Hints:
Layout: H1 3-8, E1 10-17, E2 20-27, E3 36-37, H2 49-61, H3 63-73, H4 77-86
Antiparallel strand pairs: 1-2, 2-3
Amino acid sequence: MLVSDVCEGYKQVYARSSKGLVRKYRCTSGQKKGRVVAKPSTCFTSVKQGKSTRLKKTRRVRSTAQSQRRALTTKRPTYGRVRRANRPKPRKRKK
């Protein structure tokens, strides 16, 4: 972890989009810690309770359908590109 990650509250990552790979941000602090968002300022906005509870309920009810969709998503070529793009770069060692 870098000092900038702690100070800023977000980390740059790549995500899938209809246009291919797009740059987004993973929140490292704030109320939306751990989420991938489009703008870093979103990390510090409040979580909407209604949406949060509705999504939790949907996940409980449709868990099998979501797991089937996830299986299809992981087979797409864009999925592999995103994983490769988000992999940390190898650091050069001093001799």
